[in-house]
Amino acid sequence: MATTIRLARHGAKKNPIYRIVVASTRSPRDGRRLEQIGTYDPNHDPEKVTFKTDKLTYWLSKGALPSQTVAELIKRHVVSAPTAAAEPAEAQA
Question: Other CB atoms closer than 10 Å to residue 59's CB: what's the count?
């Protein structure tokens, strides 16, 4: 069974909130999922993204492929967060 990390749409009409989920490639977009590993709210400025990083790394190690949109979110929010936290510590030293 091939798994993917993708967005599942929730929220009201014209007010979407997305859940970042791990699902089988055969299940529908908002259908059955294996696990929810984060959220994405594009209505905030800046956009609000949360990840359960331990679950994200677990599923990536198991071979789950992120969708194109989720890959961009991971690149912008997961990779940039540790480097931003490391910069002030280096400046104080």
Answer: 19
